[in-house]
Amino acid sequence: MIRYSISVVDDEESIRDGLELILSEEYDIACFSDAESFLSGLEKNAPDLVLMDIGLPAMNGIDALAIIKKKTLDLPVIMITAFEDINMVIRSMKTGAFDFILKPMNPDILELTIKKAISSIALRKEVKILQEKYLKDNHPCFIGESKNIEDVMDFINIVAKSPDTPIMIMGETGTGKELIAKAIHARSPVFQGSFIAVNCSAFPDELIESELFGYEEGAFSGAKKQGKKGFIQEADNGTLFLDEVADLSLAGQAKLLRFLESGEFYKVGSTRKYKVNVRLVSATNKNLEELIDQGRFRKDLFFRLCVVKAKIPSLNERRDDILPLAKHFLYEFNKKFQKNLKNISSEAQNLLLSHEFTGNVRELKNIIERASLIAQSDVLTREDLGIYPKSDNMEKPEPTCFKDQAFHIPDLGINIGELLESIEKKYMEHALRLTKGNESKAARLLEMNHHTFRYKWKKLNKHK
């Protein structure tokens, strides 16, 4: 369970002692008798919440609040006042106070106000703990709690130390193979060099050689006058990541093999030999042994690339990581879309935990991005996610089965657009009857997004 920290700033010792006695069992409490002493250590050790008296000696609470807001915009501050001065309350709220409490403090109101303030920063606190645990030293890695991914990262930490050993990362699409490659680079002796990622499936056969090895001036029609460095030369004294390496053509595989055997290469159109020192990491979501049997991948290249293999588990194999990842993405998209989403509802969390992720972490990220964008409240709901359980107690309407003899086109013809709209409207009406007017459930029956359903329904009924 996450434990939150609260700073109490009040010049009355009895108030400080009383609040510490009441709150210390559930929160970490630090007390200050004036604003200056509290502000002096704020940047190094900011609390999660501040309880601050307005009538402080020297610098008053509202002036201190203004400084806090300039330094840490996300820090909620609850103001304490002995007098219900409406002008003072308005001024403090305009300055950025989360709320205010009157002295003498009612314990129930105090507890409720603190809980409300804590809920506003709970997501930020949880993600901060995750980031401190998994993203320390700015090293790329996986956020997660599962034993599967911890084993992978432990393995990566070991093999990354040998920069001359090629590593093959294997895993389904969307599992984060490039992130693992970056983690290897960050933990290797060549971490200060460049990390160059190449998607081998993105280049046609005739371009892959010039992209990997570069070319000299005038090497071919359309070549740049000054020539070009290839990805391999760009990665010198760093890491070259070959993603989707199984998609290389046999000709491209042969050229890559020659480079791996000697560390030397020729640019296209050049007779000069180049030598580089590159850490090689490859990745694929395909079964290379099967491709070898089919004659589509060279066995000698396989042995060169697969000196060490790292298998990345799918998200379905590391289900303990679903919610930590979802909350991490929610926090990121909160900032991107300038939203104030505080959490994911329990129903939405259960739905995520039961969902089968065919697109792995990438699919989860896309789900949270979409949900964050369209969410109307401060909590992501089940409907925001746009995913639904495979099984549903509602009877699913079967599509009409047309037989050839059922079709009839009048001599004067038929307006196919109007006919399709009529059929669509009938199915939408039927779905709404089955779900007693619930548009979200009706959309689910018709395998539509509920926003699309609503738009179509209004459009079909606009002339009604």
Shape: extended
- Going by CATH, the homologous superfamily of the largest domain would be P-loop containing nucleotide triphosphate hydrolases
CATH top level of the largest domain?
Alpha Beta
What is the structural class? alpha/beta
Strand order of the largest sheet: 2-1-3-4-5
How many alpha or pi helices? 19
Task: Examine the coordinates and then state which fold CATH places here, giving the name of the CATH topology of the largest domain.
Answer: Rossmann fold
Which consecutive residue ranges, at least 5 long each, have pLDDT under 50? 392-405
Largest sheet: 5 strands, parallel
Instruction: Compute the average pLDDT.
Output: 86
Radius of gyration: 31 Å
Whole-number total of structural domains: 4
Beta percentage is 5-15%
Distance between the termini: 55 Å
CATH architectural category of the largest domain: 3-Layer(aba) Sandwich
Number of DSSP-assigned strands: 16
